[in-house]
Structures are given as structure tokens and as C-alpha cells.
Amino acid sequence: MHKKKDLETKMPITWCPGCPNNVILYVLKSVLKELVDAKKIRKQDIVVVTDIGCAGKIYDYLEVNAFYGLHGRAIPIATGIKMGNPGLTVIAVAGDGGTYGEGLNHLVSSSRLNPDITVIVINNGVLALTKGQPTSTHPSIGGEPIFDPVPLALASQASFVSRETAFDLRDLQSTVKAAIMHKGFSLVDIFEPCLSYNNDGERMKRDTERVCGKDIQSDFEESLRPKIRTGVFRKMSRPTLEQKLRLSKKKS
Ligand SMILES: Cc1ncc(C[n+]2csc(CCOP(=O)(O)OP(=O)(O)O)c2C)c(N)n1
Ligand code: SF4
User: Fold this and answer.
1) What is the pLDDT of residue 200?
2) Are 62 and 9 a contacting pair, CB within 8 Å?
3) pLDDT value of residue 24
4) So what's the pLDDT on residue 171?
5) Domain residue spans in the chain?
6) H/E segment holding residue 78
7) Cβ < 6 A, ligand 1 pocket
8) What is the pTM of this model?
9) How far apart are CA 131 and CA 126, in angstroms?
10) Rounded average pLDDT over 29-54
């Protein structure tokens, strides 16, 4: 019997008080606990891969196997771990700076290759652990177009593509669970404000529009501040990288 505290560590949480990362941590813990209790996955098979940043600190707060990687490299590390042992449940958790900036090409190539890993991106629109560098170095911050990874992941043929926000617990929980259970590359982009450097939560709540079960096009042509569309945009079945390489599970 796995109690909730099974996935907790003794590390003090050093995120800013009220940071929505706490919501994502809670959701991840509760989904993993539910899947372990239902015997859909085994706790000893879970590996969480993080990179650097506020998002990466989740490494300290989850009592599972974990790997703290270089900034921007969570996806290739997760892919390598999965190829090393396809029996593992491998989940990368990283920020938008690492995933859509420094490590962007890994998102494109892994979407195409389709390793069975889940990529959870905590997307606050800033490099938060660098004290929000862009907010002080970009004079026009606030008016710039946001980067939408969903059309890119769809164009790269990712087999599971979704976005949620940290405000909507029920949808976030069900999408994270579906992504982990999906056999193939899954992207869960999670919009959240950064309370210290990009506190845009009210706009996020106001401008969120749920679109379910269909591929979408970016509507940047219409507006530099498009609607934040949430939902599962694609879920399709195709052979995974490890199946194509005929890799077999290791016994444990
Ligand atoms: C290889 C490397 N490049 C750059 C940095 C500097 N750096 C530390 S945290 C960070 C940004 C983190 O932003 P993001 O990935 O969006 O995560 P957040 O802090 O917003 O959760 C950067 C660029 C680093 N530590 N290592
Ligand atoms: S700087 Fe932003 S992302 Fe980092 S802990 Fe504080 S509120 Fe959260």
C-alpha cells in the first residue's frame, strides 16, 4: 500500500510562497501514486529527469529515481534512459527556457523518433531561476508574442500533444495521467504564471479556451496575444523508438 507521503522527500521547498509549481508537484505525485496503486506502473520503475531552473527543483521533492541533467537536456537524457531499459516509466520535467530555448531541437527530433517518454514543461514564459533575466534585458517585455510549442510538436509528428494550465487541477490531472499512460512521445505544456517575474495569472485565466480532440493551427496571424488553448490536441498510435530498435525490457 503506497501512502501519499511515499513520494515526498524531506527537502524543504524553496520555491516562492504560492508558486504554481507546487500545484504541478501535487498533481504529479497524486497521478504517480494512483498509477502505482492501480498496478499500472511500478514505483521502482519510475525515473524523473529534470534540468536546471525552478522547474528542475522538482527533482528534490519527489521520492522516485531521478536524474538532474544539464539545462536543456532533459529530453535526450530521458530518451537515453528509456533506451537503456524500455521497462522504465520515464518522465522529463523542465521549464520553457530549457525545452523551447536551449534544448528546442530535442523536442523536434524526439517528437519524430517517438520514444515512449513523457515530457512535462512548466511554461512560465521566463527564465525564472536566472531571476527573470529577459524581463530586465528585453525593453519590450510584455508585448512580445508568446511562443506556442503545440503547432511545432504537431508538425514534428509527436504522438501525444497537450496543454493545460496550473489553474485547472482536474484537467491537468487527467491529461498528465493520459500522457504517462500513452505509448509514445507525450508533451504536456503547462502554462503558469511566475509570481516573481511574470505574474500574468489573471490574463491566463481570462484568455484560456479549451479545445478538445482535434489538431489546431496557431492563430498568431490574428493576434500577438492569442488565446491559450488547452486540451489534448493529438493522441495517435505509432511504433515507438524502442520497438523499432527491438530493445527489450530488463528484469528487475
Ligand atoms: C547549460 C546551461 N545553460 C544556462 C544555464 C543558466 N541557467 C540557469 S537556470 C536558467 C533558466 C531556467 O529557465 P527555465 O528552463 O524556463 O526554468 P524556470 O526557472 O523558469 O523554471 C538558465 C538559462 C545553466 N545553468 N546551464
Ligand atoms: S521565481 Fe517564479 S517560478 Fe521560480 S519559484 Fe518563484 S514564482 Fe516560482
Assistant:
1) 80
2) yes
3) 98
4) 95
5) 17-132+146-218+226-241
6) helix 74-84
7) 52-55, 70-71, 95-98, 102, 122, 124, 126-130
8) 0.94
9) 9
10) 97
Non-local (6+) Cβ contacts of 105 within 8 A are: none
| Residues 161, 229 contacting (CB under 8 angstroms) | no
Give the ligand 1 atom nearest the CA of 57. 21
Phi, psi at 29, each rounded to 5°: -60, -45
3-class SS of residue 106: helix
Residues 6+ away with beta carbon under 8 Å from 2: 33, 36, 37, 43
Question: Could you say which DSSP state residue 110 is in?
Answer: H
CA distance 189 to 246: 30
What superfamily would CATH give domain 17-132+146-218+226-241?
Answer: Thiamin diphosphate (ThDP)-binding fold, Pyr/PP domains (3.40.50.970)
Q: What percent of the chain has pLDDT over 70?
A: 88
State the ligand closest to the CA atom of 131.
2
Q: pLDDT (tens digit, 9 = 90+) per residue, 84-141?
A: 999 999 999 999 999 999 999 999 999 999 999 999 999 998 889 988 877 677 665 5
Contact 58 CB / ligand 2 (< 6 Å): no
Helix (H) or strand (E) holding 93: strand 89-95
Task: Please state whether beta strands 118-123 and 160-165 pair in parallel, antiparallel, or not at all (unpaired).
Answer: unpaired
- pLDDT for the residue 1: 45
